[in-house]
TrEMBL record:
<dbReference type="GO" id="GO:0005576">
    <property type="term" value="C:extracellular region"/>
</dbReference>
<feature type="domain" description="Saposin B-type">
    <location>
        <begin position="65"/>
        <end position="146"/>
    </location>
</feature>
<keyword id="KW-0325">Glycoprotein</keyword>
<keyword id="KW-1015">Disulfide bond</keyword>
<protein>
    <submittedName>
        <fullName>Uncharacterized protein</fullName>
    </submittedName>
</protein>
<dbReference type="GO" id="GO:0042742">
    <property type="term" value="P:defense response to bacterium"/>
</dbReference>
<dbReference type="InterPro" id="IPR038847">
    <property type="entry name" value="Granulysin-like"/>
</dbReference>
<keyword id="KW-0964">Secreted</keyword>
<dbReference type="InterPro" id="IPR011001">
    <property type="entry name" value="Saposin-like"/>
</dbReference>
<feature type="signal peptide">
    <location>
        <begin position="1"/>
        <end position="15"/>
    </location>
</feature>
<dbReference type="InterPro" id="IPR008139">
    <property type="entry name" value="SaposinB_dom"/>
</dbReference>
<dbReference type="GO" id="GO:0031640">
    <property type="term" value="P:killing of cells of another organism"/>
</dbReference>
<dbReference type="InterPro" id="IPR003119">
    <property type="entry name" value="SAP_A"/>
</dbReference>
<dbReference type="Pfam" id="PF02199">
    <property type="entry name" value="SapA"/>
</dbReference>
<dbReference type="GO" id="GO:0061844">
    <property type="term" value="P:antimicrobial humoral immune response mediated by antimicrobial peptide"/>
</dbReference>
<feature type="domain" description="Saposin B-type">
    <location>
        <begin position="155"/>
        <end position="235"/>
    </location>
</feature>
<feature type="domain" description="Saposin A-type">
    <location>
        <begin position="17"/>
        <end position="57"/>
    </location>
</feature>
Length: 252
């Protein structure tokens, strides 16, 4: 009973938290994924408290592809675009110092956390010619896909799958030409990134019509998935959100 009361208390605290990224409204399961997310949501102490009082089997499950992987990859894609294909140590150092100022307000704190903790490893990896996903795997921010899958492993949770799928599909939809079927583009996203996984195909079949409405306009993946009813934001938080000036994450 004590763990349940603790979770309810943490959830109710969302109502009084202002000026946080919209994703932080998803509650303790999102806050406590990793130290960087806890720091961005301003919930370090809450996650420590949850760690102390919640039994082991209540802990947040590991995701095959988590939000932190998408964030890490996007941050390093921005860094790589700043340093080019043949960077030297000076150009990397200069770009790293500027990086967290250009990735967008929502990612800034997490960017600083990643760069402070992994700066030397990132510098070395860029000089070795590693791509952003490889670097994030080496930093344990992403999980390597099993070789038998032929692609990424779709998360089992529908909200996590929606967030991941949407962030991958948005670049594909930017290149759609007149006359192309958007549904076919979404199916090709499943095939290319998830090896044609039945779970991904079922997700597209279920949510395609609702997702297309959100993917046609520039907005962050969480907003798209909430509009598609694949993710839910606590009602108490959603009611106070419109006038609070909440910052949403910018996806480079």
């Amino acid at each position: 009973m004590a763990p349940l009361l603790l979770l309810l208390w943490l959830g109710s605290a969302l109502c009084t938290q202002e000026l946080v990224p919209k994703q932080c409204l998803l509650g303790p399961e999102f806050w406590c994924r990793d130290p960087g997310t806890a720091a961005q949501c301003g919930r370090q102490q809450d996650c420590k408290l949850l760690e102390q009082h919640v039994p082991q089997d209540w802990h947040v499950r590991e995701q095959a592809l988590s939000i932190r992987c998408t964030i890490c990859t996007n941050i390093l894609k921005k860094l790589k675009s700043m340093v080019g294909d043949d960077p030297d140590e000076d150009s990397i150092a200069e770009a790293e110092d500027k990086l967290c100022g250009v990735v967008g307000r929502g990612l800034r704190r997490l960017c600083r956390y990643v760069m402070k903790k992994f700066k030397s490893k990132i510098t070395e990896a860029l000089q070795d010619g590693q791509d952003p996903k490889e670097i994030c795997i080496s930093l344990q921010m992403c999980q390597e896909s099993p070789p038998t899958q032929g692609g990424l492993v779709p998360p089992s949770d529908v909200c996590d799958l929606c967030l991941t799928f949407t962030s991958l599909a948005q670049p594909d939809l930017q290149h759609v030409r007149p006359g192309w079927d958007l549904g076919d583009v979404m199916n090709s996203t499943c095939k290319r990134h998830f090896g044609g996984s039945p779970r991904c195909n079922d997700f597209v079949s279920t949510y395609q019509a609702r997702l297309l409405q959100g993917l046609r306009v520039p907005q962050d993946p969480l907003t798209t998935c909430v509009d598609a009813e694949a993710c839910q934001v606590p009602e108490e938080s959603a009611q106070g959100e419109t006038s609070s000036g909440i910052d949403t994450w910018t996806w480079p």
